Amino acid sequence: MANSKTDTYDKLRVVIVDDSRTMQAMLDNAFSARTDFRVVGFSSNAAAAVDMIRGLMPDVVTIDLNMPYIDGATLLGMISDLQTVCKIVVSDAPLKNLALAASLMRAGAALCLGKTDLATDPDDFFAKVRAAASQIDKSGTYRWNPGEEPDTRTTTGRMLPVRPEAQFPVPADEKSRLQFLSQSTLINNDRERRFDLVTRHLTRVTDYPVSLLTFIDRDTQWIKSASGLEVGSTPREEAFCNYTIAQGGAFVVANAASDRRFAHFTSVASSPDVRCYAGYPVTTSDGVNVGALCVIDNRVRTVSRHVLDQLAGMADIVAEMIDQRTPAGNR
User: Fold this and answer.
1) Which of 187, 319, 237, 240 lies closest to 81, judged by CA?
2) Which of 134, 153, 183 is a domain's end point?
3) How many domains does the chain have?
């Protein structure tokens, strides 16, 4: 049986996310006029877009920045785990603000293009889209051979190599991260009231049944604080938070059971039957992602901006707590 790519002359499948019907029509007409693209879906709001993108798994998604309720930057975070989808921001704002453009690239955008680019030079616009899409590694992983220096480049500008002996990403600052943890009193499951207050707060304000604060050393994920779950540690290779600390921003998994990176995890295949995960890194004042704060549910869910905002805010508070600790770890 011929695959869909062959049947459609190797066309790249595109989802358009923009709250302007006019802009949707313009992009649709422009993409449809090309022989190498095929529009397979539209969405006017980010919440609906997440489900559509995860269901269709297109080659390319174009994202408007200014949308009601959930903006394009937040949408990037909500689909940041989809490494085989080329995410392109189509907005004039990043062209005028280099800091904004850089933050969008860190959040997962492979490319930032202006809406005016589409009108003034459509050939260049689509050449850039095609080039960005062609750089996506469809295996969804980044590997290197043992003994070689890792290639940490990705289309999003994030550092996400995979450790040779295990299938999980390793942060670019792994050496300094492990050094910090070895000198701290964080890599254990001894409960601390200040951290428990944070995870308890998160379960209350996000309506997620479980919240965890984790710290990962070379081989183990230590659950330093938990609300709604009693687990002290897990093998590192079965830690969702590997992706959170490596990515350096919000990391979301809407349905772990349908994601080949996580479906085999013990926590997914059996109790507690994890389905939805949302995490945010805990970053020290030195810029080291030493841990992760996350919420999980055994239901498939779309993660809201409110949840991501709460995670980001409480992760900052935990980072402040860690920065204020003495080497002896006074509590």
Assistant:
1) 240
2) 134
3) 2
